Amino acid sequence: MYQRVFIFITIPLLVLTFLIALKVSPATHIKSLSDDVASVEPQKENRDLEKDLSDNGHIPDWLSSVLNWLPSDNHDLGVAALEQQDQNEEIDESVTSPKKLEPSVSVENEMSLKDIPPLYTSPKIDGEGIWVSADTPVSGDGKPLIYKTVYRPSVEFPNTVVYMAVFDMSHLKPRLFIGRSEPGIYKVSNISREERLSKIVAITNAMWMQQHSRGGGAVVRGKVVYPMVPGMATMVVYQDDSVDVLEWNKDTPLSTVKDARQLSHLILKNGMVVEKVLDHGKVTDSEIGLGGQLIDAWGTSTTYRPYWFLANRTAFGVRDDGNLVFVMGHHVSTKDLARALALAGCKRAIHGDANAHNVVCNFYFRDENDKVVKRNKLSPKQLDYTLKRYDRGYTKDYFVFYEK
Predict the structure, then answer these.
(1) Which of 166, 165, 126 is closest to 328 using CA atoms?
(2) I need a surface site. Which of 128, 240, 350, 357 has the fewest CB within 10 A?
């Protein structure tokens, strides 16, 4: 009898302890998307709201593996993931593959997209995790060039919402443009005149300004603007217009590179979120700041806030099929950007620009004469004035995507 009473009491206590440890809930008290569920500022009220959420949620095993894995490879310059020994000391969870889902979108067998199961069921966001081509540019023959979705990727911050776009690189060619105020502009000032480019599809921000990039390298149309740094995270556009995100190797032939831009370390590696990095021989968190320049929607620095890393951010990821994914969030950490990209099928990812005035993904719609007749934004939270930002160039770097 005593054994039965012991079991009766112990099992519920164990279950309760497990649920508390999860720190995730169905977010029943969070506003809907139309009610600004993605707050642009990491205020105390937001954090209190997240703390008060009931602990009745469940994290799927396949998602848990993506959220908690720690990479084992070293960074060539000491800015990289922990060694295997560090990994074993800090985490002992096994790595499993995400649950296989049936393709929801297929583009001539070139791009297959799988819908992402929502982490939260309440409040519901219409279309969450479902890839759609509505309100995105199409090719001359009417085929979609971009698919997009909205998603809540964060376990710790349920009101984090990100917006993602998958670019069909079999029909697109990207180009990097150096900002007019950047020190390297004099090296490539005639680039736009040397190449005839038309059929614009989209423009996104690039990475940080050179003064904030810790000496990140850049290549534009094969010309080295800033020296490339081995081991640094790099977005590369090759001469055949294919793209990749990787850690730069000094043995990479520059003759194969059309454009490239570097920034810090990879935030996603081997399909897993980078949790820790080695910075000058010291193990540190992988959250990326902006040299103390991260600001909220009102221009106030977040440096001294407990959750300073919740900010307007962007990132680029590459999938095994060679297609590029761009993600934008307005109350998001570096790690949650990486988690979203992992769920979108990316294997490697690099952080993009940050702060409200710098996060941009514009879509351009053309008529039969390739004249732009309409513009649209990936995120409804993107500032409206940025829709016309690039009409005559811009002070900061940016990527332009053209139809082939």
Answers:
(1) 165
(2) 240
